[in-house]
Design goal:
The complex is a heterodimer. By secondary structure, chain A is mostly beta strands. Chain B has no helices and eleven strands. Classes of the chains: A mainly beta, B mainly beta.
């Protein structure tokens, strides 16, 4: 596709349930990032995949959070035993190499997660 | 102290005003500086990008970086209602594996 696709766009789940969020990056982009955006908190880095390298998981807030990227393309972010504080917009982005340059990151529209 | 600080606003200006948005940062190793614009219920999109110090102009937008003061700015001239959005500064180190660190973002409203 032409852009980064995320699904679902909205997800309401009960506290304690597991959720899976999907990201389909731009074809050919080697780097994929997950960020979380909460009201008043800006974009919080979660995890970063670059090619075949081991992912940078330094931003994951707890062991309830995990992510995979299969075949260097689609990524799934999994949150186990969801808590109300997990409610946020989860944004996925992809880029060529490190994304610092003129092309930057291309973001998807996000998944709005609400834990009730 | 967070690595990147940005006044959260919100900011409301009349149409035609000059807008100044600013960020400060603490890590002098940052080399790439970017501004992203985010419309409601959309992902951020890259607006301006600068490497190291200096100015860059693109139409009504000017980005400035002052590395000696660890301060970056985005100026919007002749602001339009369509500029109403959240603006986030972002920065990173050099190196292919460096990720972006974002400010909290400031919401701008341009009144017709």
């Amino acid at each position: 596709g032409a852009g980064v696709s995320q699904s679902p766009s909205n997800k309401v789940t009960e506290k304690g349930k597991d959720v899976e969020l999907r990201c389909d990056p731009i074809s050919g982009h080697t780097a994929l990032y997950w960020y979380r955006q909460s009201l008043g908190q800006g974009l919080e880095f979660l995890i970063y995949f670059q090619g075949n390298s081991a992912p940078d998981k330094s931003g994951l807030p707890s062991d309830r959070f995990s992510a995979e990227r299969t075949g260097g393309s689609v990524s799934t972010l999994t949150i186990q035993r969801t808590q109300q504080e997990d409610s946020a917009v989860y944004l996925c982005a992809s880029s060529l190499a490190g994304g610092q340059g003129i092309y930057g990151y291309t973001f998807g529209s996000g998944t709005r997660l609400t834990v009730v | 102290q967070k690595e990147v600080e940005q006044d959260p606003g919100p900011l409301s200006v009349p149409e035609g005003a000059i807008v100044s948005l600013n960020c400060t940062y603490s890590n002098s190793a940052f080399q790439y500086f970017m501004w992203y614009r985010q419309y409601s219920r959309k992902g951020p999109e890259l607006l301006m990008y600068t490497y190291s110090s200096g100015n860059k102009e693109d139409g009504r937008f000017t980005a400035q970086v002052d590395k000696s003061s660890k301060y970056i700015s985005l100026f919007i001239r002749d602001s339009q209602p369509s500029d109403s959005a959240t603006y986030l500064c972002a920065m990173s180190f050099t190196g292919a594996n460096s990720k972006l660190t974002f400010g909290k973002g400031i919401t701008l409203s341009v009144r017709p």
